[in-house]
Amino acid sequence: MRLLRGLHNPGIDAHGCVATIGNFDGVHLGHQRVLSQLAAKASEMSLPSVVILFEPQPLEYFKPDDAPARLMCLREKLEALSAQGIDAVCCLRFDERLQQQSAVEFIERVLLEHLHIKHMVIGDDFRFGGDREGDFSLLKESGKSMGFSVENTPTCTEGTAPGNPRISSTEVRRALANSDFDRATQLLGKVFSISGRVLHGRKVGRQLGFPTANLELRRLNSPLSGVFAARVVRADGRRQDAVANIGSKPTIGQFQPNLEVHILEGCEDLYGERIRVEFVAKLREERRFESLEVLQQQIANDIELAKRALAEQAVR
Predict the structure, then answer these.
(1) Do 28 and 36 touch, CB atoms closer than 8 A?
(2) Between vectors from CA 285 to CA 280 and to CA 291, what angle results, nearest 5°?
(3) Which of 221, 165, 205 is nearest to 298 (CA)?
(4) 272 burial class (0-12, 13-18, 19+ CB within 10 angstroms)?
(5) Cα 50 → chain centroid
(6) Which of 81, 100, 102 is nearest to 90 (CA)?
(7) How many other CB atoms sit within 10 Å of the CB of residue 236?
(8) Which among 165, 277, 170 has a CA at the least distance from the CA of 227?
């Protein structure tokens, strides 16, 4: 999959492309339906399929402290889009210049000059442009005079019964906030996970007898916090039971929140390896303990709880 970063790098050649725009946070089943529609149209027109993204996501730019929890960092999103068969991603930096760009300017500069769009797949509730005047109707009208067509995307709901909730990133976040991992899996079409490269930490876990692999969260706000039963998927495909903690480790100091994982069968040297952590069940909230000895005992308890939760999940 090709990555197009900003407008200063080469875009799509004059043959054009079929494109869609969105955050695609989580690449859930609703997103997957849009991507399938995009790929089918691209194949029909013998053109590359392109997803247009913004980094940071617009709400992260406008309200960084109150932005929705991020389900995927950019790398995870790119990997998921590649797995869906997308040919290229155009990643635009969302900043003041882009925010002030009118909808017509966006169509002319980004869609036509940079990507040479021939067809768009977009939701009828999509809004764009600094004044948010850009919508499905404007795209359709512009397409008539500028030589591209526009197609609506169907709403994807949970099940087929009338009134069922729309599958959305918001619903995935709600499921995770409620520790409803089964529902999150149903919405995503896969187990919710966080991936990253294992970094060196302060090795406090090793001193306590529970060595951990540390990963940066790489997002403003995490959709999860606390202690979890989890599984680690290694670079070679091995799956290992684990206890995971997302938080700032208040007993040993105040740190930037991160993800640390203790693999139950023993943590070998994982430094530099990319791993994926799949979350199975929440065990408890993170909290400050009065001493490292008390924390040590609690970790031992967490491990026993995690073993039971993972065994129960395995036999479903």
Answers:
(1) no
(2) 125
(3) 205
(4) exposed
(5) 18
(6) 81
(7) 6
(8) 277
Q: Mind listing the pLDDT tens digit for each residue in 225-248? A: 999 999 999 999 999 999 999 998
Distance, in Å, from the CA atom of 80 to the CA atom of 84, rounded to the nearest integer, reads 6
Helices (H) and strands (E) in the chain, counts: 10, 12
Q: What is the mean pLDDT of residues 244-257?
A: 84
In sequence order, which ranges of the chain are alpha helices (DSSP H)?
Answer: 29-45, 58-62, 74-83, 96-100, 103-106, 136-146, 169-177, 181-188, 204-208, 292-314
- The whole-chain average pLDDT of the chain stands at 91
Whether pLDDT at 171 is above 80: yes
Backbone angles phi, psi at 283, to 5 degrees: -95, -40
Q: Domains of the chain: which residue ranges?
A: 2-152, 191-314
Beta bridge partners of 241: 231
SS3 101: coil
- The verdict on domain 2-152 having CATH code 3.90.1150.10 is no
Which one of 260, 278, 285, 312 is the catalytic residue? 260
CB 79 within 8 A of CB 117: no
For the question of residue 290 being annotated catalytic, the response is no
- CA distance linking residue 109 with residue 102, whole number of Å: 10
Superfamily of domain 191-314, CATH level 4: Riboflavin kinase-like (2.40.30.30)
Cβ burial, residue 316 (10 Å; 0-12/13-18/19+): exposed
40 contact partners, CB below 8 Å, separation of at least 6: none
Cβ contact 117:45 at 8 Å: no
